[in-house]
Amino acid sequence: MDGWSSCLTTTATVAGAYLAWYAVCAWQCRRAMPALRLRGSHCYVTGGSAGLGEHLANLLAEAGANVTIVARNQDRLLAAQKRIQGHCADPEQQRIVAISADVANAAEGTRALHRAIKAQQGQAPKYVFACAGLTTPRFFLEYRPQDFEQTMQVNYFGALHTIQEAAKLMIQHEVKGGRVVTVSSQAGLLGIPGYSEYTPTKAALRMLTETLYYELAIYGIAAHCFLPANIRTPGFEHENQTKPEITRIIDGDDEAMDPRDCAQCMLDGMAKGYPNITSDWLGDIVRATCRGVGPANNMALDTLFVFLGWFLVPLWRVIVWWQAKSCRQAEAAQRKQVLSQ
Ligand SMILES: NC(=O)c1ccc[n+]([C@@H]2O[C@H](COP(=O)([O-])OP(=O)(O)OC[C@H]3O[C@@H](n4cnc5c(N)ncnc54)[C@H](OP(=O)(O)O)[C@@H]3O)[C@@H](O)[C@H]2O)c1
């Protein structure tokens, strides 16, 4: 064998072994995910009275699930419950339950889960969606200490407490094929000026879910993290009221996804068994670029997304840097003036 053919044989052997290893890892990931069966299952949605949570609840009702929605405001909850009932595939058989609770309070969150099981005639939740979340964008120097604490309490601890209690109940009730979903954000993958109260809560959720992806698998419960881009919801309208100009430029405030389409993306990602679900291909590039040693959705596609990210991420950074130049200068001058008074 000459030098060239031995070099080719070695390369082909290494590439083949690598691809085989990829295939084994991908198969192992898939094997851990049981099929999604919504009909007749109890689906528990925090933040289910508005926005993404409500549209998700509509889709679950259309698929024949028994749905529990949780939020704080009783009037909005009851109005949403009525709308969701209108989406039921079989209104005679399905139960749509509304429970008022503040998920940021661990005891209230726990009570809500127990009340939900009672109202759903003893049926424990099989699919738990921790959608409740909020943000009020501002510059870092404008926030009060309690703003950071409140947002972390709702976005991170609200989801954590719900999922911990729900997982215990799934095990006690011997629920088969249970799943938990945290709702993070693309903002949980990258730092954006104006979101310092928000991005850490969503990044924390991402790491919590990655840990639970491995740990809850011990009990046969799958964990997903949803990382959507902007969604046209009441929460997004609230954000836009305080969003600094630089955040609008980076975030693209006029480009927001339809909440029903976004909720459908979440369910599609769950059906495919994706650990980290995004709402568009740009989100996939950012997700794959940030994946580190975490689980992949699709080994081959994720490698392609990382490759695209090598070119597109630096390009995007340069464009945004130039677009935001005047905002940075104006904010620096204004802040200096405010702080020197
Ligand atoms: N909209 C976006 O552009 C976007 C993008 C990426 C990720 N996300 C994430 O997606 C999720 C849903 O966002 P959204 O825009 O649909 O929000 P939304 O329109 O503001 O709806 C939020 C829902 O959560 C409930 N909620 C808020 N705080 C709660 C608490 N402490 N306890 C119980 N329920 C609570 C609200 O009802 P009450 O106020 O009555 O409690 C409401 O039902 C959030 O986690 C958000 O961070 C949103």
UniProtKB/TrEMBL annotation:
Transmembrane parts of this sequence: 299-319
Subcellular location: Endoplasmic reticulum
SUPFAM superfamilies named in the record: NAD(P)-binding Rossmann-fold domains
Annotated pathway: Lipid metabolism; sphingolipid metabolism; Sphingolipid metabolism
Keyword Lipid metabolism in record: yes
Keyword Ubl conjugation: no
GO cellular component, one term: endoplasmic reticulum membrane
Domain of life: Eukaryota
Keywords: Endoplasmic reticulum, Lipid metabolism, Membrane, NADP, Oxidoreductase, Sphingolipid metabolism, Transmembrane, Transmembrane helix
GO terms classed as biological process: 3-keto-sphinganine metabolic process; sphingolipid biosynthetic process
Chief site of localization: endoplasmic reticulum
Swiss-Prot/TrEMBL catalytic activity: sphinganine + NADP(+) = 3-oxosphinganine + NADPH + H(+)
Gene Ontology molecular function, alphabetical: 3-dehydrosphinganine reductase activity
Enzyme class at the top of the EC tree: oxidoreductase
Enzyme Commission number, as recorded: 1.1.1.102
Role summary: Catalyzes the reduction of 3'-oxosphinganine (3-ketodihydrosphingosine/KDS) to sphinganine (dihydrosphingosine/DHS), the second step of de novo sphingolipid biosynthesis.
Name of the protein described by the UniProt record: 3-dehydrosphinganine reductase
Organism: Dimargaris verticillata
Lineage of source species: Eukaryota, Fungi, Fungi incertae sedis, Zoopagomycota, Kickxellomycotina
